[in-house]
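I'm curious: can you give me some protein's one-letter sequence along with its backbone structure tokens because I've never seen that pairing?
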Amino acid sequence: MNDVKRELIRQIYTALQAGDITKNGMLLPERELAEYFQVKRSFMREALIALEALGIIDIRERQGMFVGGKGTRNVLDSLNLLTVWPSDAIAQVFELRTMIEGPTAAFAALRRNERNMAKIQGALEQLYSLRENNHPEIGSLGVQYNAILHTAIVEAAHNPVLLRVYEGTSRLYTEGIVSVGNREREKLPYEKWPDQVYSEHRNIVNAIRRGDPEEARTMAVRHLENSRDRIQGILSGTAREADQKITSSFRRQE
């Protein structure tokens, strides 16, 4: 995260604390915030997504943006964390996610209810919309809806302790991926990444819907392994080679 973006986040947080940009616990709309801070809407949107990843605000689809509950020290610590996302931590984070999310997808296939499936399907459809419309903010918005989808799958396992553990891991990953996107933007985008990510998520969701725990576990692990390779490719400067490797693997699976 560069200094300009970090400073914008600090300014937004200060205004939040002062109550200058909120009304009844909600933030002003994105357009008004962009005007207030005199920045482009796309720039403001990135800052808001980062703030949600930090737990400072809660963006709810079709409802608005709500104030979160993080303290000042935690916010400053998190902003400092966003400046560092070492490549050697990627494999460790994905190893942890695989241990959690593989079995969790299996539990979700066995325990999900109609409400769970509606939330999971809603997040998947948002990713589909980004992909189909080639949305100009697909990178940053994709991070947001990816987090919503994965959290919805964990919720479908109906294990509150597991959900609490996952939330910490998810926040670590989301903060890191926001940092990667901001620091390595010149190495993006993957030309075929939207298709791959959507297809991998769709495979997980379909297995959960069918009530097939083994397939759900397999698809979740495969998605995480591919995601690890994509992110490592960005950091190492070999994104295109990683993309070709994953694309070949994906075509064989099809």
